[in-house]
Amino acid sequence: MKLEFLGGAREVGRSAVLVDDSLLLDYGILTADPPQYPTRDPEPDAVVVSHGHLDHVGAVPALLKGPRRPTIHWTPPTAELARTLARDTLKLHGNSPLCPFSGEHVARLGEVESRHGYGDPFDVAGGVDAGGYEVTLFDAGHIPGSAHVLVDDGNTRLLYTGDFHTDDQRLVSGTTARPDADVVVCESTYADVTHEDRRAVERAWAESVKTTVREGGTVVAPVFAIGRTQEMALIADANDLTPYVDGMGIEVTRLLRRHPEFLRDSEALRRAKGAARFVTGRDGQRQRIAADNALILTTSGMLAGGPAMTYIPEIRGNPTNTVTLTGYQVEGTPGRELQDHGRLPIDGRVYPVSARVESYDFSAHADRNGLESFLDAYRDATVLVVHGDRCEGFAAELRADGFDASAPAVGDRREP
Fold first, then answer.
1. Rounded distance, CA 79 to CA 76, Å?
2. Over the stretch 36-75, which tens digit does the pLDDT of each residue have?
3. Are both 307 and 372 inside the same structural domain?
4. pLDDT digit string (tens) for 19-42?
5. In sequence order, which residues have a C-beta less than 8 Å from that of residue 171 and are 6 or more positions away?
6. DSSP assigned state of 289
7. What letter would DSSP give residue 188?
8. 259 and 376 in one domain?
9. What's the structural domain count of the chain?
10. What are the residues facing 183 on neighbouring strands?
11. Residue 113: φ, ψ to 5°
12. Do 116 and 74 contact (CB within 8 A), yes or no?
């Protein structure tokens, strides 16, 4: 089995691993200015997508250009999330060279897709000797529909972890799957982090929100549309908070409710959705809400656009207000600038933010302990570390612990 890393190696973003020049695992975008895509345009026989986040699925429609029609395999939530993200990408970049696909390519997804549940093996064509692969998806505990991908060519069993979490979230349960594998391509986003106790973080965040509102302030919580919006709505509801919800997270919440079998507690999400106030954005509504001494859950999670960039300029000058960052802020994003320096780029100028800025660890990724506990089942396997800021360091630490581990770079070919 031959692997080529087209993206997502020693970096976070544009994940893409090509197996035997035939089977493609993920095909994502690295959010940057300008966006970055996998290093070359492959022509696989088939594609398996681990989950519906932009850095794993964002470029998939581009694989359907011209006469190419590889079958795309994914879970039902991932299939629908991929379309939502593609439409948003077209809205942002559709008339520029920054977008590698068109609406026609997005429409073609329905012609080539194949949807699968967890634990049900399916055959995928391709391979060096055209013998094909048996592929099985396992619940990865990251977001609804996220999957570990097990690829078996009859000689080698490859486990591509995708993004995963070993602890329970309110939205999804942590992964318990540990299928036998000879090679593990493992994410390492939080390889140098130990998450705080989740319930303690929830309590601290809810108390901060209540204190701000009680003092007459407004709380803006930038959230990722997929997974984090719904998680924070669940946490808000569990703590008797009634949030406004704005941005793409509204559409995604409705989408995920159509797939209750991929949720930890579909009834809890129904209640949280019912308690929230969804924002339409009409007629100055956002400006009025910003002055409403309320909690606002809004995209984008790293402040690279979206309704958040309407709300924060409205509240930034008052130290009674609070911005609660609920997700990882990638280096170079406006959210990271706010987190590190208390200032925010707005319309080409940088402004100070007097409102309190707080960060909370609501990660949907396994931390160092979670990664080690997961990999403990694979001490006899070859481990290839990807999807992180310090892949090489983590691989070295695994080698010191007795693993056969390394960190491929983008463009590397491996035959483990």
1. 5
2. 999 999 999 999 999 999 999 999 999 999 999 999 999 9
3. no
4. 999 999 999 999 877 889 999 999
5. 143, 144, 227, 230, 231, 234, 263, 264, 269
6. H
7. -
8. no
9. 2
10. 158, 382
11. -80, 155
12. yes
Residue 122 to residue 135: CA distance in whole angstroms: 5
CATH number at 202 reads: 3.40.50.10890
Asked whether the beta carbons of 28 and 55 are under 8 A apart, the reply is: yes
Tokens 């208390």 correspond to what residue?
A: 342
Dist. CA 229–CA 316, nearest whole Å: 22
The domain in which residue 39 lies consists of: 3-192+364-414
* Cβ–Cβ under 8 Å, residues 192 and 396: no
Burial string for 291-303 (b: 16+ CB within 10 Å, else e) reads eebbbbbbbbbbb
Q: Strands 277-278, 244-246: parallel, antiparallel or unpaired by DSSP?
A: parallel
377, amino acid identity: A
Q: Are residues 167 and 211 in the same domain?
A: no
H or E element, residue 266: helix 266-275
**Claim to verify: residue 205 and residue 281 sit in the same structural domain:** yes
Q: Are residues 187 and 228 in the same domain?
A: no
Farthest-apart Cα atoms in the chain, separation: 68
CB 54 within 8 A of CB 62: no
Q: What is the CATH number of the domain that holds 125?
A: 3.60.15.10
